[in-house]
Amino acid sequence: MDIKIEAKPDFLKSLASNVSPITAVSELIWNGFDAGAQHVKVILEPNELNGLHAIRVSDDGDGIDRSKVDALFGGLGDSWKAKSHRYKGRTLHGKNGKGRFRAFALGESVEWRTTYLDGKAFKAYTITGRASQLTGFSASQPTDAETTILGTEVVIENLDSNFPSLTGDKATLEITKQFAAYLTECPSLTLYYNGDKIDPSSVQNYKEDLHLGEVELQSGKRVPVSITIVEWSVQTDRVFELCDKAGVSLHEVTIGPQIKAPGYNFTVYVKSDHFRDLDKEGALVLSDLNQDVADILSVVKVKVREHFRKRILQHRSETIQRWKDEKIYPYEDKVEVNASEQIERQVFDILAVNVEDHLPSFDEASTKSKKFTFRLLSQAIRENPDSVMKIMDEVLNLKKDEQDDLATLLHKTTLSKIITSARIVADRLNFVEALSDLLFNKESKKRLLERDQLHKALEVESWIFKEDFNLAGSEKTLEDALAIHIGKLGKREDDADESDDPVLREDDKGGRIDLMLARSIQPTQGSHEYLVVELKRPKQKINSEVLTQIESYAFAVAKDSRFDQKRTKWTFMVVSNEMDEYAKLKSRQKDRPEGVVFQSDDSSIAVWAKTWSEILNDARARLNFFSQQLDYQADSDSELAYLKRAHSKYIPDDLAELATGGTTQDDVEN
Fold it and tell me: Final residue of a domain: which of 177, 197, 217?
């Protein structure tokens, strides 16, 4: 008999390939338990070369009824488990009928050998499938079974590889992690993996049963509730298992961040027969919306928080006593300890316990080294406890590869320089957003003064225009620009042919530039590049008059022979909030980058027109990579704090607060 699968081959292939070997085996184990099995065994059958010949997963469940095989194996996304939720008093794992396809992630040929009860007769048959033909299975005709033991054995052959993840030392541990909670919930079940019995207690650190008495619901009803808290030695999801009084799980609720218990992996089994009544009504499916569940969990959370507060204090107390016995604890035992020292000790105890828990090398250090480390830590806490706590928390939570990266960096540079580099990036991110607020906030831009405030702030933030340029001059005449240029060339004005004649524009007038930036052009020695920035107040649009002014500066430099054109490149840029239509058209010319309104034939002189939005977006783009790596986002408070720290001399605090809408820590404390 052929069983057709109503699904596209590509989708079926994805089910069989996008899964790890351990997960594929786990799915077959779950299928056994979902079929009512008391015992499930996984056997890795070796070949003559000590590789893998076959994988066998056997169970003593109810087998696969031959009259239902077409629906069971032909359907996808409409599993009987999705409708039943429970079978023989157990929560069902699978719900979408996808588990059988996971077997093909392991090998080409999969065979289900099953024995089931047909009325009072024991019958047996096989179902076969191939990875190359996932759109269908083949089922043999049932025959009288040679045994009266029900169940199914899945045999996977023509394996894709030797699967070291299944045969290695960690395989049994991985299976234990996946089934520990379930086997704890159902202690009568047994699971063997390649000869080893999976024992949940082997990955349990601690277990405690607590009786909460009767919990009063909003409806007025009172229901008895008890909990079992299991702390695992392996990584697990933190969940509330909603169980009946016997501990049979009916539904699972994620705990999330509601309970703070750093370093603990745990499950809370919440037991009450009231959950059984809710399950019969279908109310547990929407447990988040059920008031009775909320009432019970509210009481449970208080008890669980209390449990972990005690556990953390117990662990800390035991550890501190050991340090005292080893004579490495930096504080003396006193009958009376003042409040300040008491707080200091508490901070030290928290951080020092984390040091020992998170740094394996600490245990291996000598007693002298441990004592010295603790003395340094206590001294740092005494001088700056808040900063130390934050730094230690971040360092101790680094993953091993991140710790290795930090150690490698410290061979080449100092921690101080790493911190400084990160601070520069953070400062620039804050300045970009703060400047945007100053320029575009409806109220602040009315009050922002171009020369006394905006201009002065940009003198120390010239990187925002071009990254590798440094400020060469501010509020300079064209004659000053000439003097700076000659100085860059290594000459003095009085020992060359240059005269004191002014640098004039086309209308024989002089000119004053806002910012003049400079850099050396490498690798050509003696060559320089200048960027002259003309700032316009936010209300002043860039128009024909503004463009004529900036171009006249460029032309004045171009026609003055005292400016060395062969070894010098000049860029003139005018910046404001907006452009009028004329400026927009002129800044979008064929065969030129957008923004260029004039460029000399030899490209030694160019004139640009840019809006602040373009400048800010360019800066954001340059900083984006570093922002992502630092996982740092500027906000109104950090922007305000930066303006107050770096630019309070020019940007009044009330203007900064108006623009950013932020509050600093000082504001909060005052």
Answer: 197
